[in-house]
């Protein structure tokens, strides 16, 4: 099969779930190209990007200005630069009778690839926010492809709150199939208008062989190391884990809390650490490579993922770093948030507490510190859950099956699909 992935940014260290699918499909003999709206940093990349030469498979589409007037002026520049390369393709982008608002909003123009010579069987939008690109990409470049969209969190929570509950109305009419990474978001998509028989839960998988299991015990030096991994943004809730650890070190001073990641809240979180006078215990380590992350988790005894619903409505699915920690045998503490309860069984593989409750986090942390004899059993339960439900090979096999089943279905809705109207999210 020939597959096009539509993504927001590439490469991206925080989106290993996309890399796992791309490399899994390549390993199975399929062709995959990546179409991104933004060029990511190449100073520190996941090893798979280099090992599979993924940058050679990546094409960058012009970013679309939010302001319609700015979109028009930038579009004129695109026409002058590219119009001579394939005039026929450019003319398609202005067929208002066939494509309606896709033409008026200029989404088609910004998705035209001059002299495009490729066709695809599958166009897979890796976020709902990229589905507008996907619909335009299919119409203008490869109209016979099947269109799949995966919702992953922000796109089905914050974005819907910002744009309105009808924002995916045309996508649900014209898209061929949909996937979500947890049942929590599947139910939300159905509530927004997606047909239940067109959407399945397809979890973000993990290559457990890269995250070796080790039973956790109290270290000989008595130093208990705690880890959190994630972007330093509101929905990761790291403020509350900092406050919880700061409270616990008054009772248990032999703690070390390492926070891996970066983001817009780094400065304010460092100020909080300094204000609480716990700089000797809590460390913001910045971005790390996958191998560095594995080494830090391997040397830790407890993992905290204190996710919260952000003020703008942004929510998480079961996060990959939580699966990685569980696969490696760490007892975990997380929150009743989004799809996380589908991953962590409270009292079995770890503990769940209410969102934004630093006292509850501190209480469960204290319990784990006082009862190291339960670490090993919790770690085994966590690893068993990850292996049973998040095995990457099985999930990539299933992804291929979904593609194949979709291609085997009737193409009788093609004409109706082409005539559908797309309401731009930026209008």
Layout of strands and helices, then pairs:
Blueprint: E1 2-10, H1 16-27, E2 31-39, H2 47-51, E3 58-60, H3 68-82, H4 87-92, H5 96-99, H6 101-104, E4 122-125, H7 131-141, E5 146-151, H8 158-163, H9 169-174, E6 177-180, H10 183-191, E7 199-201, E8 224-229, H11 238-248, E9 255-260, H12 266-275, E10 282-286, H13 290-298, E11 302-305, H14 320-327, E12 332-335, E13 350-353, H15 358-370, H16 375-389, H17 392-408, H18 414-419
Parallel strand pairs: 1-2, 1-4, 2-3, 4-5, 5-6, 6-7, 8-9, 8-11, 9-10, 11-12, 12-13
Helix pairs in contact: 1-17, 11-15, 14-16
Domain tally: 2
Tally of alpha and pi helices: 18
What is the CATH-assigned architecture of the largest domain?
3-Layer(aba) Sandwich
Radius of gyration, in Å, reads 23 Å
Poorly predicted spans: 414-424
* Anisotropy-based shape: elongated
Give the terminus-to-terminus CA distance.
35 Å
Mean pLDDT metric: 91
Top CATH class of the largest domain: Alpha Beta
- At the fold tier of CATH, the topology name of the largest domain is Rossmann fold
What fraction, in percent, of the residue positions are helical? 25-40%
What structural class do the secondary elements suggest? alpha/beta
- With strands numbered from the N-terminus, the spatial order across the biggest sheet is 3-2-1-4-5-6-7
CATH superfamily of the largest domain: Glycogen Phosphorylase B
């Amino acid at each position: 099969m020939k597959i096009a992935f539509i993504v927001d940014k590439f490469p991206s260290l925080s989106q290993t779930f996309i890399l796992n699918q791309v490399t899994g499909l390549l390993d199975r003999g399929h062709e995959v190209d990546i179409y991104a709206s933004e060029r990511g940093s190449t100073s520190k990349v996941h090893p798979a990007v280099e090992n599979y030469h993924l940058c050679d498979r990546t094409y960058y589409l012009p970013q679309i200005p939010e302001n319609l007037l700015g979109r028009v002026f930038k579009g004129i520049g695109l026409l002058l630069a590219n119009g001579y390369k394939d005039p026929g393709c450019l003319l398609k982008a202005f067929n208002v009778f066939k494509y309606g608002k896709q033409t008026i909003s200029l989404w088609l123009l910004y998705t035209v690839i001059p002299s495009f010579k490729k066709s695809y069987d599958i166009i897979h939008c890796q976020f709902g926010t990229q589905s507008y690109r996907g619909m335009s990409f299919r119409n203008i470049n490869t109209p016979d492809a099947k269109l799949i969209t995966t919702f992953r969190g922000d796109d089905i929570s914050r974005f819907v709150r910002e744009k309105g509950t009808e924002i995916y109305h045309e996508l649900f009419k014209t898209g061929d199939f949909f996937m979500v990474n947890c049942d929590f978001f599947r139910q939300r998509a159905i509530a927004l208008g997606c047909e239940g028989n067109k959407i399945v839960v397809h979890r973000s998988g993990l290559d457990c062989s890269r995250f070796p299991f080790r039973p956790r015990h109290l270290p000989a030096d008595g130093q208990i190391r705690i880890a959190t991994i994630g972007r330093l943004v509101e929905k990761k809730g790291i403020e509350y884990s900092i406050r919880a650890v700061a409270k616990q070190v008054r009772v248990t001073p032999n703690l070390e809390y390492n926070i891996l990641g970066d983001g817009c809240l780094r400065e304010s979180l460092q100020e909080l650490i300094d204000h609480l006078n716990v700089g000797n215990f809590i460390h913001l380590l910045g971005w790390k490579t996958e191998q560095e992350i594995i080494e830090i988790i391997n040397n830790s005894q407890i993992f905290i993922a204190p996710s919260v619903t952000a003020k703008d409505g942004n929510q998480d699915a079961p996060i990959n770093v939580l699966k990685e920690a569980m696969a490696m045998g760490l007892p975990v503490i997380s929150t009743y948030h989004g799809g996380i309860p589908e991953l962590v069984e409270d009292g079995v593989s770890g503990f769940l507490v209410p969102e934004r409750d630093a006292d509850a986090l501190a209480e469960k942390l204290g319990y784990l510190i006082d009862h190291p004899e339960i670490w090993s059993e919790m770690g085994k339960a966590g690893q068993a859950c990850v292996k049973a439900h998040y095995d990457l090979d099985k999930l990539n096999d299933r992804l291929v099956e979904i593609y194949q089943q979709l291609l085997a279905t009737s193409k009788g809705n093609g004409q109706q699909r082409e005539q559908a109207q797309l309401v731009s999210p930026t209008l």
